[in-house]
Each structure stands twice: as C-alpha cells, then as structure tokens.
Design a protein that fits this description.
Radius of gyration: 15 Å
Helix content: 25-40%
Strand order of the largest sheet: 1-2-3-5-4
Number of strands: 5
Largest sheet: 5 strands, mixed
Shape: globular
Strand content: 15-25%
Distance between the termini: 22 Å
C-alpha cells in the first residue's frame, strides 16, 4: 500500500465532485488523499476461485477503517492490467479515469493484444456498500 492522491477533476461522478469541493472548500485542481494498491495479483492456479476478491475486499475494508479512524482517505487507486479490468470494475466497483473512456471502449481488443497494459482505476470509499 502506498500513499497517493487523485486530482479531483478526474473523478467521474459530478455529484461526488461537488460534494467534495463544498465539504473541503477546494477546486477541481486540488488533489484528494488516496491510497494506492501496488501490483496486486493472484497466482493463476488460484484464479477464478474467489481468493482475489476475498483478499482485495479485506484490504479495502482495512483501508476504509483506517480512513475513518486515523487518516482522511477518500479514494483507493489501482494501476490494473487490462486483463484484470473486468475484475476491478465489475466485481470490485472500481471506476476508470474519464480520460480513458475512449480507449476503454476497446478493452476486449486491448486485453487480447496487450494484456499487461495498465490503466488507473479508483474506488470511492464513501460509495462502496458491499461490505457494510
């Protein structure tokens, strides 16, 4: 886990952006405290058995607890491989940066051609509800 930040202007949800801007009295140019999960992966022999989801949910839960008790963290960031895009987005609720919208329309092609290409994805801790 690494300390990081996310520029508010790349957040997709306009309502969340406005809420954060009003709560913190900041502009879209400001960075928001975040935690980055670096190089998260599961050995392929354990793939599709739920272990990756279980471990990542545990990590997210711990980061969420930390943000509520000790440090003001709003977002979790991952730099996920193209081949793991659906895992992060569909299973775990991460969102891609707005700047990647156009290219991610071709994610299936990218996954076949360059499965280790990376994309930054984020998860809003206040928007998650699967472990509450």
């Amino acid at each position: 886990l690494l300390t990081d930040s996310l520029k508010l202007k790349v957040v997709r949800d306009e309502n969340i952006k406005e809420l954060i801007k009003n709560e913190l009295n900041i502009s879209e140019k400001n960075n928001i405290a975040s935690v980055k999960i670096g190089r998260y992966a599961i050995d392929s022999k354990y793939s599709n058995k739920g272990l990756g989801s279980f471990i990542l949910r545990n990590i997210i839960d711990n980061i969420n607890d930390l943000s509520k008790k000790d440090v003001g963290i709003r977002f979790i960031i991952v730099e996920g491989y193209a081949k793991a895009y659906y895992f992060y987005v569909d299973k775990m609720g991460f969102i891609n940066l707005k700047k990647d919208d156009k290219i991610l329309k071709n994610i299936d092609f990218i996954t076949k051609k360059d499965p280790e290409r990376t994309f930054f994805l984020y998860l809003d801790l206040k928007a998650i509800n699967w472990y509450i």
